[in-house]
Write a structure and sequence with these properties.
Elements: E1 4-7, H1 13-24, E2 28-32, H2 38-49, E3 53-56, H3 63-77, E4 82-85, H4 100-128, E5 131-136, H5 149-169, E6 174-181, H6 187-200, H7 204-212, H8 224-234, E7 246-249
Parallel strand pairs: 1-2, 1-4, 2-3, 4-5, 5-6, 6-7
Helix pairs in contact: 1-8, 3-4, 4-5, 6-7
This protein binds nicotinamide-adenine-dinucleotide (NAD).
Nicotinamide-adenine-dinucleotide (NAD) is lined by residues 8-9, 11-15, 32-35, 59-61, 86-89, 109-110, 136, 138, 181, 183-184, 186-189.
């Protein structure tokens, strides 16, 4: 039976990949993201897989936007069964120059938004005695890299939040898990490559090899589909006992 899946930040990168694997299974998708052509991207996926969908440009920094998006989805589909908190941003700077507005935006989008979305879907999941909350954290939820203070704090924070929600959801058939990807080649990474080229005076290839993939034992970007398939599994009934985990898909980065 078709379930309803809300994926924040699903008009680009990893979120779009997750939306496609759920769409391929015939589920209803609530798309969200700030891409100016987000509505068209969502429509294309819906047409390709013949699914029902909503596109919401809700800004994850605006609690009222989040509540309105979830209310609209509940009105159309009856409830959210699977929530994927994926929207995220990055900013790289030494701590002494780290702009406070970037810190607040990163914590707001990568961490606090998941509090608001979870709270908004919770009552419905609890009433239906079934729910899946999947948070796209990062290898940076488990280990740090210099110059990424806000991002690392937000991703460590979302793992703590995930564990708490797992405990609170257990009596009601709600699981909560985090996925911790290594480097996945998406637009967020393209921006970082450009920034690091400037900061370190390196070529594109050097940044990829010496700054990014140097962290991973497997010297390749993680495919978007590898992340998406893991989310699909965690959302399945087979994964009912998997809760409160932070699953690295990171080419051996955090094994070291
Ligand atoms: P991306 O830039 O391609 O996608 C990010 C999405 O979030 C976009 O759709 C964007 O519009 C949306 N978004 C950003 N700010 C928003 C806001 N205020 N309100 C609503 N939507 C907003 O990046 P991605 O690589 O696909 O990242 C997705 C998630 O995966 C992020 O949480 C990121 O931290 C995490 N992650 C990425 C990597 C990687 O290497 N790409 C590694 C580990 C974790």
């Amino acid at each position: 039976m078709a379930k309803t899946v809300l994926i924040t930040g699903s008009t680009s990168g990893i979120g779009l990949g997750i939306a496609k694997v759920f769409a391929a299974q015939g589920h209803n998708i609530v798309f969200n993201g700030l891409e100016p052509n987000g509505a068209e991207i969502a429509q294309q996926v819906a047409d390709e897989f013949g699914i029902q969908h909503i596109f919401s440009p809700a800004n994850m920094l605006q609690p009222d936007n989040i509540k309105a998006m979830i209310a609209e989805a509940e009105a159309k589909f009856g409830g959210i069964d699977i929530l994927v908190n994926n929207a995220g941003i990055q900013f790289v700077s030494p701590i002494e120059d780290f702009p406070a507005d970037k810190w607040n935006a990163i914590i707001g989008i990568n961490l606090t938004a998941a509090f608001y979305t979870t709270q908004a879907v919770w009552k419905g999941m609890k009433a239906r005695k079934w729910g899946r909350i999947i948070n796209i954290a990062s290898a940076h939820g488990l280990v740090a890299s210099e110059f990424k203070s806000a991002y690392v704090a937000s991703k460590h924070g979302i793992i703590g939040f995930t564990k708490t929600i797992a405990l609170e959801g257990a009596p009601f058939g709600i699981t909560a898990n985090a996925i911790c990807p290594g480097y996945v080649h998406t637009p967020i990474i393209d921006k970082q490559i450009a920034d690091q080229m400037k900061t370190h005076n390196l070529s594109r290839e050097e940044v990829i090899e010496k700054v990014m993939l140097d962290k991973q034992a497997v010297k390749e970007f993680i495919p978007v589909d590898a992340i998406a398939q893991s989310v699909l599994y965690i959302a399945s009934d087979s994964a009912a006992q998997m809760t409160g985990i932070a699953l690295p898909i990171d080419g051996g980065w955090t094994a070291q």
